[in-house]
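ingest -> fold -> write
write: protein_1
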Amino acid sequence: MKFCSRRKLCRLCGSRKLTSLGTLAVFPAHAGEGPDPEGTIPSWPVEWSLCGACHHLQNTQIIQPEHLYRTSPYRSRTIPGRAAYLNRTAEIITGLPAFPKAGKVIEVGANDGQLLELLGTRERQVIGVDPSPVLPQLPEAAKPLWLDDVFEAKAAASIRRQHGMVDAIVAIGTFSRIDNLHAFLAATRYVLKEGGVFVFDIPNLASLVAHNRLDWVSHEILSFPTIGILQQFFDQNLMRLVQVLPEAGTPDNLLCVARRKEAGTEAETSVQAAIQQEQQRQDKELQSITEWVTRLPTQGERARAFLAAAREKHGTLGGIGLDHGSWNVLHVLGITPALVDVLFDDNPAIQAGGPGSGLAWPVHRLGDLAKHKPGAVVLLNQDLKLDPALNAYREKGGKVIVLFPEPAYAGK
């Protein structure tokens, strides 16, 4: 069965004017699987292409979501950075004047149900949709509904048939992972009430390039849209982008609000302000993206040389990755067990792999870091800088090296 295919049309405007910026990395579908020198694990490329018509940056190598997500369950609660982001985002979403105080809410990409639990109340019923087999472990009082599927026509029809139309749809960390966005918005329109609201986030492309976020080089991240491109795309699909909340997310994300066109809601000044900022930096940003992609091989060489020197100096060298994205960095930079002895991760899904799972390294709990012989560990995730486990390791005499995404490793 063919799990991966190459997209030939722009995901947003449908143009054939896709120019490949090159293959950024080749690695297994699941980020928790390390480099595979024997070639026993199926691997696929991550290829970024730029649309010559609308300038949409996108991943054009597509792994079927049924394969990518059903065999790689996510658990947001085990990832501190992700859990904190969802907590903040839930507060912002529920505080929006347009967000319903009561009614039905769909969360697309519900994961292990953390955001479902935060959005649900006695008056607000939540419905989770996710292709992963992970079922939410929530308090009995929350009682979320759950649909194990991709959110397209079939799922939308099932929800509307069983529960009627909904007051809001939320997609946090999901929109950029969807290949067929036209089908997704059609499903959104089909099940969302005329006065309903759609809340989602997208990657902040300018910030990702500026801060060298290599962990966004992933099979899962398919789109890096700008607000200007999104506004046109939503208009074409009878939706309207009405609000952009850049201060609401993290530096890597922009929180957005959209409605059905029939609602008659005009876009707030935040949308036009975001578009104007994009237009002012467009040419420079397109050049930065191209340069950033072409620098990746050099970054890998620099990182590997640095790690080899660090290991020689400190003896034991470990690596820390606390979410799936951080593990991608190993592949992008070509980091192998010859450079890093052991990995630390608090994601049970990755730890459960263990021997025989395709992992090239021993994997230990991050909390056990202080039990290991002091040497040096390499920080792969910026969210971990203040983690208590790292502080305990430092107190024991261990050295913590920040490899990523510090400017020193931006290939400059």
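write: protein_2
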Amino acid sequence: MTTCWRTLTGNERSQAESAVERRRWQVFIDTSALIAGILSPTGAAHEVLRLCEAQVVQAVMSRQVLVETDRNLADKLPALLPDYRAFLKHLAPRIAADPPRASVERAKELIHHNDAPILAAALLADVDYLVTWNTRHFQKKVVRDAAPFPIVTPGEFLEAFRQAILND
């Protein structure tokens, strides 16, 4: 296990490992959370990635998330690209299928057109959570009501995860 367990007490760690054995949560990570997790070694998004890296939860990403992240890093922080790409290989996220055009069009009725492919991919991927820093578009009531999973910030996800461990 990696050091992401550092914040858990011995009893909490044991409970977490038991919960993981039952079923790993499938967590869709969008571009904003992925970039934040890569850039900030102390932030909540980084801790979410560490849980994924430790195989405590399963990272799920769409091809669009991967392409957007790659493009943003290439434009703004090209020196990070090799490490980012190596990290992705190590992380081995489940790649969500590209959503059909009809699914994206339905998502556009709920959310900003740029975010519709992300929402559509998450909806089709059968995930337990969508983790994003894009609260402006993803936290709208109409979007939250349409999603069968919670749409949360990285910090909110960590709190939900901790509560699930403690209540298990």
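write: annotation protein_2
The radius of gyration is 16 Å.
The CA atoms of residues 17 and 74 lie 37 Å apart.
pipeline exit 0
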